[in-house]
Specification:
mainly beta, four-stranded antiparallel beta sheet, 1 helix, 8 strands, about 30% strand
Protein backbone atom coordinates (compact mmCIF):
# COMPACT_ATOMS: atom_id res chain seq x y z
CA UNK A 1 0.00 0.00 0.00
CA UNK A 2 2.80 2.46 0.91
CA UNK A 3 4.71 1.60 -2.26
CA UNK A 4 1.65 2.39 -4.41
CA UNK A 5 1.04 5.69 -2.58
CA UNK A 6 4.76 6.49 -2.82
CA UNK A 7 4.57 6.19 -6.62
CA UNK A 8 1.09 7.66 -7.28
CA UNK A 9 1.33 10.68 -4.97
CA UNK A 10 4.29 12.37 -6.75
CA UNK A 11 2.77 11.61 -10.16
CA UNK A 12 -0.59 13.09 -9.11
CA UNK A 13 1.19 16.16 -7.66
CA UNK A 14 3.08 16.80 -10.92
CA UNK A 15 -0.09 16.38 -13.00
CA UNK A 16 -1.96 18.79 -10.69
CA UNK A 17 0.76 21.45 -10.97
CA UNK A 18 0.90 21.12 -14.74
CA UNK A 19 -2.90 21.34 -15.14
CA UNK A 20 -3.51 24.41 -12.98
CA UNK A 21 -4.51 27.73 -14.50
CA UNK A 22 -2.05 30.57 -14.93
CA UNK A 23 -2.14 33.38 -12.36
CA UNK A 24 -3.84 36.47 -13.85
CA UNK A 25 -1.68 39.57 -14.15
CA UNK A 26 -2.73 43.19 -13.68
CA UNK A 27 -2.14 43.84 -17.38
CA UNK A 28 -5.09 41.57 -18.20
CA UNK A 29 -7.61 43.67 -16.24
CA UNK A 30 -10.07 45.75 -18.24
CA UNK A 31 -9.23 49.48 -18.19
CA UNK A 32 -12.45 50.29 -16.31
CA UNK A 33 -11.29 48.22 -13.33
CA UNK A 34 -7.91 49.88 -13.08
CA UNK A 35 -8.46 53.48 -12.01
CA UNK A 36 -4.74 54.31 -12.35
CA UNK A 37 -5.00 53.82 -16.12
CA UNK A 38 -6.63 57.24 -16.38
CA UNK A 39 -4.65 60.43 -15.91
CA UNK A 40 -5.86 62.50 -12.95
CA UNK A 41 -4.96 65.95 -11.71
CA UNK A 42 -5.48 67.13 -8.15
CA UNK A 43 -8.13 69.71 -7.31
CA UNK A 44 -8.33 72.06 -4.33
CA UNK A 45 -10.78 69.71 -2.59
CA UNK A 46 -8.85 68.19 0.32
CA UNK A 47 -10.74 67.51 3.54
CA UNK A 48 -10.03 65.62 6.71
CA UNK A 49 -13.30 66.46 8.49
CA UNK A 50 -15.73 64.29 6.48
CA UNK A 51 -15.44 61.19 8.69
CA UNK A 52 -16.03 61.41 12.43
CA UNK A 53 -14.92 57.91 13.50
CA UNK A 54 -12.07 57.35 11.04
CA UNK A 55 -8.96 59.52 10.59
CA UNK A 56 -9.27 59.68 6.80
CA UNK A 57 -8.36 62.54 4.45
CA UNK A 58 -10.43 62.75 1.26
CA UNK A 59 -8.93 64.24 -1.89
CA UNK A 60 -10.77 65.00 -5.10
CA UNK A 61 -9.13 64.30 -8.45
CA UNK A 62 -10.26 65.28 -11.95
CA UNK A 63 -9.77 63.05 -14.98
CA UNK A 64 -7.86 64.96 -17.63
CA UNK A 65 -9.61 63.59 -20.72
CA UNK A 66 -13.30 63.45 -19.75
CA UNK A 67 -13.39 65.77 -16.76
CA UNK A 68 -14.99 63.19 -14.47
CA UNK A 69 -14.20 63.31 -10.78
CA UNK A 70 -12.51 60.67 -8.67
CA UNK A 71 -11.93 60.46 -4.96
CA UNK A 72 -8.77 59.31 -3.20
CA UNK A 73 -8.26 58.41 0.44
CA UNK A 74 -5.26 58.97 2.67
CA UNK A 75 -5.10 57.46 6.16
CA UNK A 76 -2.49 56.93 8.82
CA UNK A 77 -0.77 53.55 9.05
CA UNK A 78 -2.51 52.97 12.38
CA UNK A 79 -5.86 52.97 10.58
CA UNK A 80 -5.91 49.28 9.76
CA UNK A 81 -9.16 47.74 8.64
CA UNK A 82 -9.25 44.49 6.68
CA UNK A 83 -10.53 44.56 3.09
CA UNK A 84 -11.82 48.13 3.27
CA UNK A 85 -13.96 49.24 0.33
CA UNK A 86 -15.69 52.52 -0.43
CA UNK A 87 -19.26 53.23 -1.54
CA UNK A 88 -21.07 56.44 -2.47
CA UNK A 89 -24.75 57.03 -1.82
CA UNK A 90 -26.96 60.05 -2.52
CA UNK A 91 -28.08 61.90 0.61
CA UNK A 92 -27.22 60.64 4.08
CA UNK A 93 -28.18 57.01 4.68
CA UNK A 94 -29.97 55.90 7.81
CA UNK A 95 -27.78 54.21 10.40
CA UNK A 96 -27.77 50.49 9.68
CA UNK A 97 -25.31 47.61 9.85
CA UNK A 98 -25.48 46.92 6.11
CA UNK A 99 -24.63 48.93 3.01
CA UNK A 100 -27.86 50.19 1.41
CA UNK A 101 -28.67 48.43 -1.88
CA UNK A 102 -28.78 51.74 -3.79
CA UNK A 103 -25.15 52.57 -2.84
CA UNK A 104 -22.61 52.66 -5.68
CA UNK A 105 -19.43 50.64 -5.22
CA UNK A 106 -16.38 52.80 -5.86
CA UNK A 107 -13.65 50.25 -5.18
CA UNK A 108 -10.93 49.33 -2.72
CA UNK A 109 -9.95 52.01 -0.21
CA UNK A 110 -6.27 51.84 -1.13
CA UNK A 111 -6.69 51.43 -4.90
CA UNK A 112 -5.92 55.05 -5.78
CA UNK A 113 -8.38 57.53 -7.26
CA UNK A 114 -11.82 55.92 -7.50
CA UNK A 115 -14.20 57.29 -10.12
CA UNK A 116 -17.31 58.88 -8.69
CA UNK A 117 -20.71 58.57 -10.34
CA UNK A 118 -21.82 61.66 -12.26
CA UNK A 119 -24.58 62.13 -9.69
CA UNK A 120 -21.93 62.87 -7.02
CA UNK A 121 -21.16 66.23 -8.67
CA UNK A 122 -24.77 67.41 -8.72
CA UNK A 123 -26.22 65.89 -5.54
CA UNK A 124 -25.11 65.84 -1.92
CA UNK A 125 -24.03 62.37 -0.96
CA UNK A 126 -22.08 60.36 1.57
CA UNK A 127 -19.14 58.04 1.38
CA UNK A 128 -19.41 54.71 3.17
CA UNK A 129 -16.33 52.79 4.31
CA UNK A 130 -17.13 49.09 4.65
CA UNK A 131 -14.89 46.29 5.90
CA UNK A 132 -15.54 43.14 3.90
CA UNK A 133 -13.67 40.90 6.33
CA UNK A 134 -15.56 42.18 9.38
CA UNK A 135 -18.84 42.68 7.46
CA UNK A 136 -19.37 46.05 9.13
CA UNK A 137 -19.62 49.69 8.21
CA UNK A 138 -16.49 51.41 9.54
CA UNK A 139 -17.74 54.97 9.03
CA UNK A 140 -20.13 57.13 7.00
CA UNK A 141 -19.06 60.61 5.89
CA UNK A 142 -20.95 63.83 6.31
CA UNK A 143 -23.02 64.72 3.23
CA UNK A 144 -20.98 66.61 0.67
CA UNK A 145 -20.98 67.51 -3.01
CA UNK A 146 -17.77 66.72 -4.83
CA UNK A 147 -17.81 69.46 -7.47
CA UNK A 148 -17.20 72.42 -5.20
CA UNK A 149 -13.51 72.96 -4.42
CA UNK A 150 -13.05 73.83 -0.76
CA UNK A 151 -10.09 73.90 1.55
Amino acid sequence: MFAVIGVLLPITFVIGIAARRAVPHAATLPPALSSWSQAFTATDYDRDDLFTNAPVRVRLWREQNLGRYAVGFVAAKEFLKPDLIAYWIAGHPAATDQVPPEATLLGAFSAGPLLLPVEATTTDGSLILFSLADQEIVDVSKPTRFSEPTN
